[in-house]
Amino acid sequence: MPLAGRDWPTERHYDLGVIASIRATELRYSYGDTLAVNDVSLDVAPGEIVGFLGPNGAGKSTTIKILTGQLTPDSGSVTLLDLDMASNREAIQARMGVCFEEKNHYNKMTARENLEFFGRLFDVKDLDADALLEKVDLLDRADDRVSTYSKGMRQRLMIARTISNTPDVLFFDEPTDGLDPVSAQAIRRVIKDEASRGAAVLLTTHDMMEADSMSDRVSFINEGHVLVTDTPENLKLAYGQRNVRVRSRTGGEVEEVVIPMDEEGAGERLRGLVTDDVMTIHTEEATLEDIFIQMAGRGLE
Amino acid sequence: MSSGSDVTSKSTMVRAIMAKDLKEFSRDRFYVFMSILGLVFYVLIFWLLPSEVDETITVGVVGSEQFDFTEVSGRAESEGLAIVEYETTDELKAAVEEGDTVVVGMAFPTDLSNPTIEVYIGPGVPPSLETAMTGIASEIAYAAAGVPPPVSGFATEEIILGTDRAGSQVSLQEKFKPMLAFMVLIVEVLALAGLVASEIQNRTVKAITVTPAKVSDFLTAKALFGTSLAFVQVVILLVAVRGLDNGPLIMLTAVFLGSVLATGFGLLAGSIGKDFMSVIFWSMLIFIPLLIPAMALLFPGEAATWITFMPSYPLAQVLIDVSAYGAGWSDVAPLLGLLALWGAAALGMGWLILRKRVQTL
Known about the structure:
The complex is a heterodimer of chains A (301) and B (361).
Chain A: E1 22-31, E2 34-44, E3 49-53, H1 60-67, E4 75-80, E5 83-84, H2 85-93, E6 96-99, H3 111-121, H4 129-135, H5 151-162, E7 169-173, H6 181-196, E8 200-204, H7 208-214, E9 217-222, E10 225-230, H8 232-239, E11 243-250, E12 253-260, H9 266-273, E13 278-284, H10 288-296
Parallel strand pairs in A: 3-8, 3-9, 6-7, 7-8
Antiparallel strand pairs in A: 1-2, 1-4, 4-5, 9-10, 11-12, 11-13
Chain B: H1 10-26, H2 29-48, E1 57-62, H3 69-78, E2 81-85, H4 89-98, E3 104-107, E4 118-121, H5 127-145, H6 172-201, H7 204-209, H8 215-240, H9 248-272, H10 276-290, H11 292-296, H12 313-325, H13 329-359
Parallel strand pairs in B: 1-2, 1-3
Antiparallel strand pairs in B: 3-4
Helix pairs in contact in B: 1-8, 2-6, 2-8, 6-8, 6-9, 6-10, 6-12, 8-9, 8-13, 9-10, 9-12, 9-13, 12-13
């Protein structure tokens, strides 16, 4: 099952071994003469978190709009939960949760009213707004209008709304962007919980540390084309450089040596440096951003 | 917690969106204030306007004892003329010049061998009345002097072509009813446009379209909400100004079709407007020209041909025809048909533009 762009070796592809909850096959979409999405293929398994990474204008938003049924692709197909989006849009959307980057709440309504409104649209018969709000630590503000909320509170409410229909497929677009570390951590915990109960998660983020720590696999997209999809570990092994940085005190001087571990004889050199004079030893590995730059020739910003 | 596996029924979703819209509307202080204040203000204006037509023209007269104005006065009253006698010509002239009650003065001759009647016209008297008064002067002179009028022997038959509106003059209150209804519609168009613009601006509509609700459910809910809001408010106004006393079913039909028309323009203004101020701007730009037919009804005479081509013309005309002249279904059917066509066109246009706007977000 091909998961990544065609230009990359097939051994980098990942066999899910199960029916994918999200499957995009050779999607293409143009805005006029501009090709925004070019042969994008992507799979997300149940319970899996896939980080969808790329710079602004790379085609992430358009791809997500297609995957969530907001846009119809010029060609290619979208299958969610084994249902074709073109003919089962409403049935799919009933089992889908979308967390937008913009905090699109009804600000004149309370958090509880917002959740209840979307619960009615999803036909959730026994919506437990209190439980949802407690999950994102907003229960004490449940009956306050959203217009009085801080940015972090609005984002937490967005998370509560996204999971209000207990979705099987989840799309998160920059869910922790601009949040304080405590709020960001709380949101990451909810996303992990959702994946743990079996939901497939497609996560778009600019935060490479977040993508690295949260994602089972990451997919790089650039200029409308998926460059590669694989686990962060595999990508680092395949494309990154591992270094060991050793700082020693020799006489009154502090000396720092960097040993690329992929070079021949690196182990021997390292053993030679480990003496009583060593102050610190650090291992270094490539970040996802380093790998993206290496592949795309540009950064993620 | 469980999500419905079946697709939520369309009516449930439309009702949910409408209930949400009502909640949002009721929490918008500006529109609620404008709606309530507007209604109270318009009803107050209505009841302060004159409810009867007073078209009596007071004519001051001076004449020698050869003229007996007592009998003439009685006959003239039934023709809409009030005759007031003055002692001297100077007093008469002063009264006419003052113009408070007497607008025309007539000084009849003391010397009947040289019978010239001087007619004094007050400032601001229209030329048509001036000519009529000059003619009436000789009639009064003959009647008061006890001799027959100069022209006699002709039998006259009055044939009214079209609706006899000269014989059943409409009070300013009646003439204002369509205008007040339009003023209420403007506020409701603003409210709907504000709701639509806020959905687009805050991107909340995107959140709706990734649920099982379709764009068409969103548009249906907005159209129904806008129509209901406008309809209810105008009906409240009409009840308060006794506008449903004549032909209530026809009036309600016209108001419903007018609400559809207003909703179409509300959707259009909301789609174009980017913020509160631009919504106000576009709503006014669209709706002020639509007031013209209602304004035209305040003035006597038939509406100019170009006014009859305005979308709001049939609504204004039906409201005045039914409430003031007691017109029936057969009289206003063509106008109601035209209004239905305009309403469908406006709603269709608003619907398409808003759908395009939502789809390109």
